[in-house]
Amino acid sequence: MAPTVTLAARRRSRRLAADAGLLAVAAAFSLPLAWVLLSSVDPHADLRVKAPDGLTLANFDAILKQDITFTPLLNSLILCGGGTLLTVVCAALAAYPLSRFRSRLNRPFLLTILFATSLPITAVMVPVYALFVQVNLIDTMQGTILFFAASQLPFAIWLMKNFMDGVPKELEEAAWTDGASSLQSLVRIVLPLMGPGVAVVTVFSFVMMWGNFFVPFMLLLTPDQIPASVSINEFFGNRGMVAYGQLAAFSIVYSTPVILLYVLIARRLGGGFALGGAVKG
Amino acid sequence: MTSALPHTKTAGGGPETTGPVPAGPPSGRRTPGASVRRALVRALPVSPALVLLLLFLAGPIAYCAWIAFTDLQLTGQAHSSFVGLANFRKAFADEEFINAVWLTLVFTVVSSLLGQNTLGLALATLMQRASKPVRTLTGGVVITAWVLPEVVAGFLLYAFFRREGTLDAILRWLHLPTQNWLFTLPILAVSFANVWRGTAFSMLVYSAALNEIPSEITEAAQVDGAGGWRRMWHITLPMIRRSIGTNLMLNTLQTLSVFGLIWVMTRGGPGNKSQTLPLYMYEQAFQNSMIGYATAVALLLLVVGSLFSLVYLRLLRTEV
Description:
Chain A: Keywords: Cell membrane, Membrane, Transmembrane, Transmembrane helix, Transport. Chain A: InterPro entries: BP-dep_ABC_trans_perm, MetI-like, MetI-like_sf. The complex is a heterodimer of chains A (281) and B (320). By secondary structure, chain A is mostly helical. Chain A has two domains: 1-56, no CATH class; 58-280, MetI-like fold, CATH 1.10.3720.10. Chain A is 77% helix and 0% strand. Chain A is built from 13 helices and no strands. Chain A has helices spanning 2-40, 58-63, 66-100, 106-117, 121-134, 141-165, 170-177, 182-193, 195-211, 214-219, 228-237, 244-268, 275-280. In chain A, helix 4 (106-117) crosses helix 6, helix 6 runs antiparallel to helix 9 (195-211) and helix 7 (170-177) runs antiparallel to helix 8. Chain A is globular. By secondary structure, chain B is mainly alpha-helical. Chain B has helices spanning 4-17, 32-43, 47-67, 86-93, 95-129, 132-147, 150-161, 166-173, 181-184, 186-211, 215-223, 228-239, 241-256, 260-266, 277-287, 291-316. Chains A and B meet through helix 1, helix 3, helix 4, helix 5 and helix 6 of A and helix 1, helix 2, helix 3, helix 5 and helix 6 of B.
């Protein structure tokens, strides 16, 4: 029995070492997060992590105003909601033939899509700006929504197609014999069966757009059209960063939706986000 | 040089013009006309996505490839003219451009290859052995940093690295010398910021990969007396090499296009000490109004990105 005992003891000490290592990393990673949480309720917040000098909601009070918070958040919602809707509808439609019908063009098309998923979108923003000026789409919500959708589509199609491949074809064949069209079987049979997959594509697209700074920064100019990702920089970056407590409070208000959405799908998929797996293919 | 771009357009434009040809489903023979019509009907759902992609992604890329060779400017210019390779010659003769290339390289190597990739692998490995509560806690913290919007992450790390910030407070407490990191070592500060923000992705990819290694294999090696590092080097790493490749590619591509994080933390400064290529491109386009020149820089970035992207495709080839 001796070897088993030492093996168990070794395993235990290895577990302790691993725990210690992870906790050290977690502590380092949580410092900036602790700053934003503590500063948001601190009446005298500065730049370092410290116990608040008393608890206050004044920072939140100060920022929960029409021009600072509500208009930018509403703009974010319109942009990201519109972009996500367009992305998910187009991706679901496009994924259907790619997943269901064999064709010589599927493979080149999918390879192109995969190629496009990893292109640095940042690099095309200057030409997009120049192009949008010429076709009068600059500084319009619809132009930004269309570009958001196009930039997110490759990955959305790729994910959607992979999720759709997981839905057995036999279920639709019954519907086909009953005379259902492709569109009917997509909407009535396939999409409901891949609910979690659609949720992942939706949430992922939304989260990516919600956090995106460069696209609206380049394409939107009018102050009452800019979303929260850009306004946070305008309000606080250009003011010399004086009101740190308010900046922290705004960061929390602006970040909460995406964190909640992430938790929602992470739970639904049982822990590990399928993204890792999805990206691998 | 632009070989990747026509590839995008032709393959993307294919289905619209020709339509997928059915590969002989078991529905018997039909006349050629009917089969083409059926193929078109079947490919119809792809068209909205295709139109969007052609207009708003392939379009700008093609436009990029055109105006990079012109002297287009931001304001008050009646027409631009073709200037050949002048923009590229100008770029390679410009010290600031070379500086931006170097900084982009440093930023990519430090934050993506060394930082995110190694730390992600280390975290995933430790998670295999750690107890569940610690695993959940660490995963939660690291993933939160990843899910936060880019600009918020920028502000949090700006606060962390400033002279009055948390890092210097800790160093003071340890009686170590302090400094304003955003002025003395800005490129390192933004690199660490990118590690903070991006490690979760590598961690998730590697966790998934490590979970797929059958435990019998590592246990067998353990019984044979292979130590931790040797097991890692001879067994674990070779078994997850595909994930390593995928992860390195995606990390690098993501890092090449970081803009908001650096913009919020340093604006590319002080001077141009943290001005990576995307920030250089932005400055040339909007502070100096040289759209044509900025687009040439963008095109270079796009070509480098495309090369990485092609390598990535190659790695995934068997899976499509």
